[in-house]
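Worked example 4.2. Below are the chains of a multi-component assembly; read each line carefully before continuing.
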Amino acid sequence: GESVGLHLPTLSVQEGDNSIINCAYSNSASDYFIWYKQESGKGPQFIIDIRSNMDKRQGQRVTVLLNKTVKHLSLQIAATQPGDSAVYFCAEAYTSGTYKYIFGTGTRLKVLA
Amino acid sequence: NAGVTQTPKFRVLKTGQSMTLLCAQDMNHEYMYWYRQDPGMGLRLIHYSVGEGTTAKGEVPDGYNVSRLKKQNFLLGLESAAPSQTSVYFCASSYPSRGRNTGELFFGEGSRLTVL
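Applying the procedure described above to all two chains together yields the following structure tokens:
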């Protein structure tokens, strides 16, 4: 899979390949990060989260990596499936302060058969 | 358990009309949020509430008002709708998780508003 930043809003991957979606966050005080998946016409759905005291967390077929030094977050999807086609958003929050969740612009993932 | 419910799901307004979007959650969440989603711009926070009777401004609060009179409800009002407020509006809620390990946002299905 090809890694892209938020300035490239569409990522196309072959079915079965791994996908990597990147996100740059803005607030160095943010201590909680979430990845959401949004399918057309639906509300965002939670995928995986990570707190700032961790640098990696794994779920089912998904892994989130956090690099606080450069304020960068990535979502890795293993063995991408057609059902993974959606828009993916990262969100950051400062849970010890205002508890505002701020979202990135999003990346559209297209899975090619 | 319905989760987060938004009403109405669709609405068409004329410029200058007013309306209220209702968000209801049955999960006993303390925090509630209103976002708007425009094409290519992701989700932008309008207003949020960290408890009954409290509200705060988000990134794009102008033209909107909110109220949290009951813990389970968060209302978003447009006093004088403008075409720039044409958008999809999402409500979300989260646990009273200050200091806890989780803070997942639960979203409603969205309310599509068109202002002519």
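Take a moment to check your reading of the output against the notes. Chain A has a mean pLDDT of 88. The two ends of chain A are 14 Å apart (CA to CA).
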